[in-house]
């Protein structure tokens, strides 16, 4: 399973929000010449240029989340790789290195640990549904991933680390070979199931730490991270290169499906073209997996740090049946890996009863999409739950700022 490296596009559009949190402030101006790896956005995370070139615009542009976001447009030209020496690696400096490199997890949260007493690190090497970028990264960069993990072990003081890989993955043998000399890194095989990668599930299953509601795995001494983050850690620690590229699975109605390494900011239509283009008439492009991904409203939206896959669908792939009313079958409740009540969350979010959503722990939803997958009424549960989460966040913000009473 090879990862194809894309040609640098003529222009990239780099959104200043590719993480959970506020939009970053641009630290470049139109007309500036930037180089690969140069900081272009600063704030709740760090954002770097994935190309060398000239900044031609800084404006609100389409974003994979379905809204316009302040973005830096860079017209590329051949440039030298930035001569950037990594800072000395020490335990106390790792958090800063990670932050400065703008490394974020696939869920948009930064790859840093806030608690001092991390005992176990779990790296999620499973692939969800139609995505295979984790396996591709492990097959193509096993030693870099292990080196990135070693750096994380050293800096966090963790006693052990576990890389979880599916039993039928080609990467299992490769990673086992790579880690034989290490006693503190174990490769653990797991049957294929979905969703394998929810943080609480991983902590419970592989570190035997149950995470109570309202807590995080870190509260129990478990740090969960990803294969892509370990490769990104290696890139910054060894090459001084911040997070400027992403390995993406391109699948569905494309002529040469596979994994490609794309610069952050590359329009997704260029990524599809790099895979031979569409093999039919596309009617839907979904980012980040068929089960829990988000349909895109334009093929001009760029690859961002949280992009893991692009799925192209034609008319015959799409079920256009309109949703029916909830029949209270509770299948969604049975399937929810977090133990939530998706049908109730749907009803409360749909009727903007955000206080009730908060009472039912809507914030714990990991947006895995299992509820929607099994729902016989084909209700858009994840989209409405997402809407409910935003409603709860706004409600809490208003309470905090005193705009409404608690
Ligand atoms: S998407 Fe649905 S099944 Fe998945 S965690 Fe959220 S409520 Fe539960
Ligand atoms: S699976 Fe669908 S129909 Fe059944 S209870 Fe959940 S939301 Fe309602």
Number of strands: 17
What is the end-to-end distance? Answer: 53 Å
Largest sheet, described in full?
6 strands, mixed
Low-confidence stretches: 79-88
Draw up the topology in text.
Layout: E1 3-5, E2 11-15, E3 25-26, E4 33-34, E5 39-42, E6 46-48, E7 53-62, E8 68-76, H1 94-100, E9 120-124, H2 133-140, H3 142-156, E10 160-166, H4 171-179, E11 185-190, H5 199-206, E12 222-226, H6 227-239, E13 245-252, E14 258-263, H7 268-274, E15 282-287, E16 294-295, E17 309-314, H8 331-335, H9 342-350, H10 354-359, H11 370-374, H12 381-400
Parallel strand pairs: 1-14, 9-10, 9-12, 10-11, 13-17
Antiparallel strand pairs: 2-8, 3-5, 4-7, 5-6, 7-8, 13-14, 15-16, 15-17
Helix pairs in contact: 3-6, 9-12
Bound molecules: iron/sulfur cluster (2 copies).
Describe this structure in words.
The protein is α/β, with parallel strands linked by helices. The protein has three domains: 150 residues, Ubiquitin-like (UB roll), CATH 3.10.20.600; 149 residues, Rossmann fold (3-Layer(aba) Sandwich); 70 residues, no CATH class. Helices cover 28% and strands 22% of the residues. It is built from twelve helices and 17 strands. The strands form four sheets. Strands 1-14-13-17-15-16 form a six-stranded mixed sheet. A hairpin with a 3-residue loop joins strand 5 and strand 6. Helix 3 crosses helix 6 and helix 9 crosses helix 12. The longest helix is centred in the last third of the chain and has 20 residues. The protein starts with a strand and ends in a 6-residue tail after the last helix. One iron/sulfur cluster binds next to helix 11 and helix 12.
